[in-house]
Amino acid sequence: MIQKPKGTYDIYGDKAREILYLKKLITSLMDNYNYNYVQTPVFEASELFHRTVGEETDIVSKETYDFKDRGNRDLTLRPEGTAGIVRCFIENKLYVDASPLKTWYFGPMFRYERPQSGRNREFNQFGVEVFGSCNPMIDAETISIVYNLFKLLGLKELKVNINSLGDLESRAKYREALLSYFKPYLNDLCDDCKQRYAKNPLRILDCKIDANSDIMKNAPKISDYLNEDSKKHFAEVQKYLEFMGIDYVINDNLVRGLDYYTHTVFEITSEIEGFGSGNVLGAGGRYDNLVANLGGPNIPGVGFAVGIERLLLALEAENININQEEGIDVYLFATSENERDMMFSLASILRVNGFKTDLDYNLRNFKNNFKHADKLKAKFIIIIGADEVNSKCLTIKNNQTKEEYKVEFDNLIEFLDEKLGDE
Ligand code: HAM
Questions:
Q1: CA-closest residue to ligand 1 atom 6
Q2: Which of 46, 48, 63, 109 makes an SS bond possible with 74, Cβ 3.0 to 4.6 Å?
């Protein structure tokens, strides 16, 4: 028996309903914020991720699914969404109308990680990328989208962590400070950190192995190296978060696992006890140099991504049920073979008129049809027998009150509209 690959899972039943519900909620939230839906390929040229996410990041150095296609091209299953959206932004010259251009996406990402709860090899992200504005309002707006989505869903145990990595000048100064600080401790660091030291010392702060060592705790803080512009930008982001009533903490050690960030970075975590290490539900930040670094114009960007599977785990941990199995409006069955065609065409009429309808495909007996209608949580049952066909008058049963009605064919839609309309 062939089984699904390790770290992947099938989506069906309750989980499928929950994901569809989240998609619907996100679509309507994004409409309110006036963001545009964008869809990019699931695989891209491998080079794209090397040049955006960064060579030294765990994602690119250890976790990508790389393959050659039959034309010998180097391709990678996307480990995240930002790189593809930035490529799409440049390739389609979307920047001619970036005033700003606000986009969102939803789809599968792939990372070769050690599978555990909240850490899959295939997972879904809802993400946002905004291009063309340096205004700190946008940083705060993107944070508010994640925060408000979680609040709308009813999550309570949340923590908003923010930090600033500053602009290029501030980062360059900070880099120097880190190089001199870590130099005497090089032999005490893990092998990955030794490499990070040479290529991108900021990455050392994101190390999972050395995270709790004194060396790491006493490392210089970026906040001491921010120049005036960077400090001002960060202060304004905080001001706007306060305007929106969003509680946050400044977390000096937050550097994020991807290389493209400048200025604001943030992570929203679930603080439920025992939730485990994968408690970052959504994360992102500003990337003012990424578009230019990829060969596009000098246009700033900011965004985030939310892990859908982790969000579902957080909802479960807080006992929030979003499984909206509402049942159907109408269930139809025929009392004999002769009326089955009529039942089938009536179901089709009801469906195009907006009623959630199902029918008896299996020629069940009376008792089993009522049982099945209950299972489908049908509000009304329409029974079609010879009498109904001859008299052109249907028997309709309210499945909750058990009241029975006789309704002429021609009045059926009007009847159901009236009965179901005020729900
Ligand atoms: P990220 O922090 O790598 O950022 O991922 C964002 C979110 O995706 C995480 O907070 C987590 O909820 C979820 N996630 C990541 N890896 C896994 C996994 N293996 N299994 C399940 N969920 C996972 C990014 O991807 C950036 N592109 C975010 C961004 C957009 N920054 C700016 N724009």
A1: 305
A2: 46
